[in-house]
Amino acid sequence: MLANFFGRLGLAALAGHNGIRCLGLLLIGAFCSLTALAFERSIPRFPAPRQPPPDAQMRKAMASIDQHHKREARQCAQEVALIQRQEKTSRLDGTYSLRYQVVLDNPRIFAVTSALEVYCAGAYPAFAENAITFDRSTGQKYDPLKLYALTQRSGDSVQVVPEVRQMIRAEWLARRGPGVDDDCKQILKADELRFFDADTVTFTPTGLLILYTGPHAVQACYEPVTLSYASLKKFLRPEEASRLGWPAGRPR
Fold it and tell me: How many distinct structural domains can be found in the chain?
């Protein structure tokens, strides 16, 4: 995930240091160890559903998510230590902050959002909001786009259905205010929502939550959007809804 963050920011050199270890000066090595330990201790465990308890398959997936973030935190600490050694300073610091929120917890679906803030003493911090959805009947991660046909293939790419794109854009613009005509409004009007997948969509009690954001430089213009299930009824796939036990209205 860090490689993706830094790659989007054009920091490929930092993103590729997978083999870096805390070598060199003893002080820098000690800092790396302490920072990595501090980062890891600050990372919350992935939340567990209330009822029913997670099965073995789901527990394995949850543990894998925890281990993934611990590895990233260690990598971030290594990046900080490397830059400190190169800059011959101990003033640089890093951040690896992760927050979870359970947005739906029922016998069919367990949905969680994550907010991750990463700064590894490079040029820019990185921030990402993602969704993690589980199908409770299988214990495996689930793609909400299997249930709602919100995308379509266009040539070699997958794009958001135009009607859904307009619904999302209308929500964004409504939040900017009718009398506001700022740079963000122009950016939102022009955005074609070309990046849309299981990591940016999940379920809530009232609707489908969209965590789409644009390029890093204009990320502040975007906000999460919830599209009501009623507005998406025509996009519901009946066979998948039947398999999942998904109700026609809002989930219980």
Answer: 2
Tokens coding 102:
């359970």
Count Cβ atoms below 10 Å from residue 61 Cβ, excluding itself. Answer: 16
Give the burial class of 22: count Cβ atoms within 10 A of its Cβ; 0-12 exposed, 13-18 middle, 19 or more buried.
buried
Highest mean pLDDT range out of 1-5, 9-13, 164-168? 164-168
Query: CA 168, CA 224: separation in Å to the nearest integer?
Result: 10
Q: Are 222 and 172 in contact (CB under 8 A)?
A: yes
Are the C-beta atoms of 202 and 132 separated by less than 8 Å?
Answer: yes
Same domain for 206 and 176: yes
**Which 3 state secondary structure label does DSSP give 143?**
coil
| CATH code of the domain containing 35 | 3.30.565
Q: Which residues pair with 151 in a beta bridge?
A: 160
121 part of a folded domain: yes
- Measured CA to CA, the distance from residue 166 to residue 169 in angstroms comes to 5
The answer to whether residue 233 is domain-embedded is yes
Tell me the average pLDDT across 203-227: 88
Q: In terms of C-beta density within 10 A (0-12 exposed, 13-18 middle, 19 or more buried), how is residue 230 classed?
A: exposed
Asked whether residue 105 falls in the same domain as residue 216, the answer is: no
pLDDT of the residue at 131: 97
What is this structure's pTM?
0.80
> What pLDDT, on a 0 to 100 scale, did the predictor assign at position 13?
36
